[in-house]
Amino acid sequence: MHLWRTDQPKIMSPNLNQHIPQYCGSCWAMGATSALADRIRIARRNAWPDVELAQQTVVYCVSNGCSGGWSSEVYDFAQSTGIPQDGCQNYVAKGSGKDCTAMHTCQNCPPDKDCYPIPEGEFLRFKVSEHASITGEDKMLAEIYQRGPIACCIDAGPIMQWGYDVWGTPKAKSVFSGSPGGSCDHEISVVGFGEEASGQKYWVVRNSWGTYWADDGFFKVERGSNTIGIETQGCDWAVPIVPDVLKPQVNQAYHLRWLTLASMGVATILHTKSQIV
Fold first, then answer.
1. pTM (2 decimals)?
2. Is CB count within 10 Å lower at the N or C end of the chain?
3. What average pLDDT values come out for the chain (277 residues) when binned by 10 residues?
4. Active-site position among 2, 131, 186, 271
5. Catalytic: 64?
6. Among 27, 61, 88, 235, which one carries the catalytic annotation?
């Protein structure tokens, strides 16, 4: 299995739940920002301080917010405007994509005073230098191997209840298969790939339905058979620009490598791109 990980701590950003504290169709924002945050870690050699992106700002500012969107639109926003860190906005699972005020971009709430927007220039925005879409097993493999996780669109129907049913059982670490094709209705991030001892190939995917789904929020899906449309519905990648103040020092110790984890049942991240709810 090939995963973007480091010795301490791991490269992958946390698994989240898009539907807390209320239902919100923001998988497109979760998948795109989680893949981009992983790539920022890779570019920074996993240096301190850690960087998480503000998914809530994206939901306020991009596409149709909780009513759906596309990962490519997240990367358009990142390229033109930039995404602040999550310390600017707690995730609240609401927004229409048309609420992009200064307050909804970056704010602070001091004691005994009203919340106020942080002035532009007094917080960081993370941008990308380029982004594009790809399809097909070979291009997906090459992009993940060379630069890190990607955001992809899948058909969520076959896996939705399956993930809840298998959580906490040995089946959670099995490879999901048997549902080729389908519609594009859910966004995930693909963080790696591997092969079972039997020869069955798979992608490692990170979902955004919480850690009580499948393998603590991750799952493996059969690779090369277009299971749940993962190889044809479209994936997006972006190249992050690391702000000068966060570029790792030349003498900073780091260990970034591909690990072959034949004995481990965890995870890469899979992400899909589509307007989903």
1. 0.88
2. C
3. 50 91 98 97 91 97 98 98 97 98 98 96 98 98 96 98 98 96 97 96 97 97 98 98 88 39 34 40
4. 186
5. no
6. 27
